[in-house]
Amino acid sequence: MVNIKVAGIDIGSRTIKLVLLENGTLSNFRIIDTEHDPLAQSKKLISRYKVDVVVATGYGRHLAKTHFADKIITEIKAYALGAHHLFPKCRTIIDVGGQDSKVIRVDENGHMEDFEMNDRCAAGTGRFLEVMAKTLGFKVEEFGVEALKAKHSVNISSTCTVFSESEVISLISSGANRRDIALGVHQAIVSRLAAMVNKIGPKEDVVFAGGVAKNSCIAHLLGEKLGMKLFIPNEPQIVGALGAALTAK
Amino acid sequence: MSDYEKMWKKLGINLQRHEELLESMMSSYENIIASQKNRPKAMAYFDDAVGKSHCRRVKELIDWQSQGGKVVGTFCIYVPEEVAVAAGVMPVALCGGTQFSIPYAETMFPRDICPLIKSTLGLGLGKMCPYLPVVNMAVGETTCDGKKKTWEILADMVPMYVMEVPQKKERIDRQLWLKEVRLFRDKMEELSGTKITLNALKRGVKTINRKRQALAKLHDFRKESVLPISGKDALLVTQVALIDDPKRFARSVEKLNKELEERVKRKIRVFPAKAKRIMVAGCPMVVPNWKIHHIVETLGGAVVCDESCTGFRYYANLVEDNATNLNKLIENIADRYLQINCSCFTPNKERIDEVLKLAKEYNVDGVIQYILQYCHGYNIETVKLEHALKKAGIPVLKLETDYSEEDIGPLKTRIEAFLERLE
Q1: Which of B410, B412, B420 minimises the CB distance to A120?
Q2: Which is nearest to A240 in space by CA: A67, A23, A8?
Q3: How far is A14 from chain B (nearest CA, A)?
Q4: What angle separates helix B3-10 from helix B56-66, to the nearest 10 degrees?
Q5: Which residues in chain A touch residue B410, judged by CB atoms under 8 angstroms apart?
Q6: pLDDT at B192 over 90
Q7: Residues A49, A170: one domain?
Q8: Ranges of each domain in chain B
Q9: Which of B406, B412, B417 is closest, CB to CB, to A115?
Q10: Does the structure show a pLDDT above 80 at B233?
Q11: What is the 3-state secondary structure (H, E, C) of A32-91?
Q12: Same domain, A219 and A239
């Protein structure tokens, strides 16, 4: 049997994810920062491995197609396929990445039935969390955990990255506890996400993926708000790259 | 200085800024329209009409005026062209479709207003619109709040006349509209100094009917499985309809139609047979706004139907020209216009039925609801329309955008995923 090596690369706004499949089984994965030059970063990442086929997805997919990818698919389709592969009973996927949040509904075969995507602003995305964490003096990795320790929550009225930042700054100067503000920030994102999920009419099982799925506070609040159990992959960031790689056959 | 530059200077145009505007429009035209492969030869006329819209067409209008003709600027397809033409008045659309002029509007105008209004106003305020100084009068209407208030500002730049378009479709509304059409007739008679006779109005109706018939036939070719014309080109033709001489325009579309007929016979197609067939429904797109069509068709889809004021709503329905007296003919004209299902009406179920019917006729795979940012009427109407389309099993995608380039990335992702979904 020929050993077929396939790469799926998800070139996102904040990170680039690479998944390698050998004969359909995950053999390796890598995640690096996109930085200012997604093409150079992608090439650097992929040149370390010898593969037969490269399928690209994410923001940089068209760039990849011009330079090295054999095939491209959108991150929406990629997340649908990847999540369905990991959780065959999944019918709804919530993917919250660096700049986009998406909700995708699929049929029992993993085919896209409908999707919603956030509008042009970065509200309710990973970037929003990063900005808020920084404003409150938390590392982004600890932001969710710290927010979960809050005793109360402070209401944040805006999910606009720019307006919220000034809202948060004025809360800090009014003496509010920064963990309480952090919880408020998480709640604001979750209510926005939940509205998007409910618009599409979620069906169970629901998978939560993308970088923001690593934030335990978002995962907890979102599941609670939707009244549904959220299935989170062990590596929520690589679901799109996995989905891309799966289409290579 | 060229003759055209002299003309612009005389019109008070800011030459340097105007040059930049033309450059930006021509570069969009080159990248989006001219770059298409296998275009019908007869498109050359419409390319030329767009390319010379700020020079030759403006000069034609000035020449027309020097022969005693009048010109009115319009912003909406509710303004009855037949009546203007019958009085020897040439209507020409003043709507702006360029991002370039928007900052000139935002110097004094609220930002959260639709790009069409801001672009139009910006062209005037920035002294980049050669039509505005030429027109004898501009005719506004009441199809949205944004426009209604804009007329008050535009009135400082050009004599304004406003027609009241009703908001409902009851008997009393028809009476109001009929009265408005009569008042418009009076206004056109006053402007031109000529009485509109039955025969003159019949000729006006005939001229505009011929234009609409030619367009309707053109768009019928988009029902074919062998698509002889791209969505971008079909849109371009309809856009030109709003600024061009109606008779010459009709002849040019008829010529294009002959070529398209030949193409269909010889199975000359502009897209592969597997291209997904898309309807774009919603807000108007005026030159040089080809944003959504360009993304769809670059990603392998085909726009086969435009349910908009720069599409179906413009050419659908003719005025019945069999009237034997002037009053009856005016009634026929008023009735024809009331069949335009603008989102300013409530309720507007006719539009939903129309979209469903078009989806069937054009055998579309999916519908994109196109919303210009801050256009509340069409935006809110997406809710009912989406529901109806889903019920009919037709996939639908809603896009809300403006004239800028900043959201091209997410738009591409959405449209591409929508096309993937249709596979």
Answers
A1: B410
A2: A8
A3: 15
A4: 60
A5: 100, 117, 119-120
A6: yes
A7: no
A8: 3-422
A9: B417
A10: yes
A11: EECCCCHHHHHHHHHCCCCCCEEEEECCCHHHHHHHCCCEECCHHHHHHHHHHHHCCCCC
A12: no
Q: Which domain holds residue A34?
A: 1-87+235-249
Interface of A with B in 207-236 (CB under 8 A): none
The verdict on A223 and A246 lying in the same domain is: no
Interchain contact A77–B (C-beta under 8 A): yes
How far is A112 from chain B, CA to nearest CA, in Å? 6
CATH number, residue A74? 3.30.420.40
DSSP string covering B78-125, please?
TS-HHHHHHTTEEEEE-----GGGHHHHHTTS-SSS-HHHHHHHHHHH
Bond before A70 cis per omega within 30 degrees: no
Question: A136 and A105, same structural domain?
Answer: yes
Residues of B in Cβ contact (< 8 Å) with A80: none
| Cα–Cα dist B221/B348, whole Å | 28
**Domain total in chain A:** 2
Q: Which residues contact B165 (CB under 8 A, 6 or more apart)?
A: B76, B78, B141, B142, B143, B177, B180, B342, B344
CA distance B369 to chain A (A): 14
* B contacts of A196 (beta carbons < 8 Å): none
Q: Distances in Å between the alpha carbon of B148 and those of B151, B155, B160?
A: 6, 11, 11
pLDDT tens, position by position, B210-229: 999 999 999 999 999 999 99
- Model confidence pLDDT, tens digit, residues A180-210: 999 999 998 898 899 999 999 999 999 999 9
Give start and end residues of each alpha helix (H) in B221-311.
231-241, 246-265, 291-298
pTM of the shown model: 0.94
**Cβ density class B105-122: b for 16+ within 10 Å, e for less:** beeebeeebbbbbbbbbb
CA distance A61 to chain B (A): 10
Nearest CB partner across the interface for A112, out of B407, B414, B420: B420
Residues 6 or more apart whose CB falls under 8 angstroms from that of A195 comprise: none
B160-163 and B137-141: which strand pairing? parallel
- Strand A101-106 and strand A92-96: the pairing is antiparallel
How far is Cα B280 from Cα B298, in angstroms, rounded to an integer? 15
Over residues B12-64, the pLDDT tens digits come to 999 999 999 999 999 999 999 999 999 999 999 999 999 999 999 999 999 99
Residues of B in contact with A74 (CB under 8 A): 413, 416-417, 420
Q: Can you tell me the ipTM of this complex?
A: 0.90
On the 0-12 / 13-18 / 19+ scale of CB atoms within 10 A, A174 is exposed
Distance, in Å, from the CA atom of A36 to the CA atom of A16, rounded to the nearest integer, reads 12
Of the candidates B406, B414, B420, the beta carbon closest to that of A73 is on: B420
Nearest to B348 by CA among B313, B383, B309, B381: B381
Kindly give, in sequence order, each residue whose CB lies less than 8 Å from that of residue B125, ignoring residues fewer than 6 positions away. Answer: B104, B105, B107, B108
Strands (DSSP E) found in B300-372: 302-307, 366-372
Q: Residues B228, B268: contact at Cβ < 8 Å?
A: yes
